[in-house]
Design goal:
Radius of gyration: 23 Å
Number of domains: 2
Strand content: 15-25%
Number of helices: 7
Order of helices and strands: HHEEHEHEHEHEEH
Shape: elongated
Number of strands: 7
CATH superfamily of the largest domain: Glutaredoxin
Oligomer: single chain
CATH architecture of the largest domain: 3-Layer(aba) Sandwich
Helix content: 40-55%
Structural class: alpha/beta
CATH class of the largest domain: Alpha Beta
């Protein structure tokens, strides 16, 4: 019985400051675990640049694009998406804002999104004004070993400097492009 009393006496109540610190440490630990898992999954799912990529492509409106030349001037973002992709309905407006800013070259690849006419209608309905290549059969995306949409690739001097997937805020895309221009 005396040991029970001693155990009770040893329990010290935490001050509000100690409780806050404990909650903050737990949140930081869970945040760190999330960041590590997210980074590993993103790395695993990212597109992989083919050995001999086709960097001269034609958009759905018939204009020829040279990604190699574009990426020599400054980093170029390539955004893989689909009209059928539910996540892309959230990411494509961000891509539209980035394209409108004219900060960096941007080319999108619409994967298995129908004919050029159907893609044009989708683009018009959603007020998207970014350059888009129609990958009707998914061959371009398959060549990049893409696994999920949306996916992003940053090209600099015809080489992939970064690859990522999922929802990306505008500031993150701009930061990645800026970092690619420096390093």
């Amino acid at each position: 019985m005396t040991t029970d009393i001693k155990k009770t006496e040893l329990k010290v109540k935490k001050t509000p400051k100690q409780k806050l610190w404990s909650v903050l440490k737990t949140a930081l630990l869970y945040g760190l675990v999330f960041i590590v898992i997210y980074t590993v999954v993103n790395w695993w799912r990212q597109p992989i640049m083919p050995a001999n990529p086709q960097l001269q492509l034609t958009d759905y409106q018939g204009q020829t694009l040279d990604l190699a030349a574009m990426s020599h001037k400054q980093p170029t973002l390539v955004y893989f998406w689909g009209t059928w992709c539910p996540i892309c309905t959230y990411t494509s407006p961000t891509i539209n804002k980035l394209a409108a800013s004219d900060s960096y070259p941007l080319v999108t690849v619409a994967i298995k999104s129908g004919s050029n006419q159907r893609l044009a209608e989708y683009m018009q309905q959603n007020n998207f004004d970014f350059t888009t290549i129609n990958d009707e059969d998914g061959a371009i995306f398959a060549n990049w070993q893409g696994q999920v949409t949306p996916s992003y690739v940053v090209l600099k001097d015809s080489e992939m400097t970064q690859g990522l997937t999922g929802i990306q805020p505008l500031w993150s895309l701009k930061l990645r492009l800026w970092l690619s221009s420096i390093f």
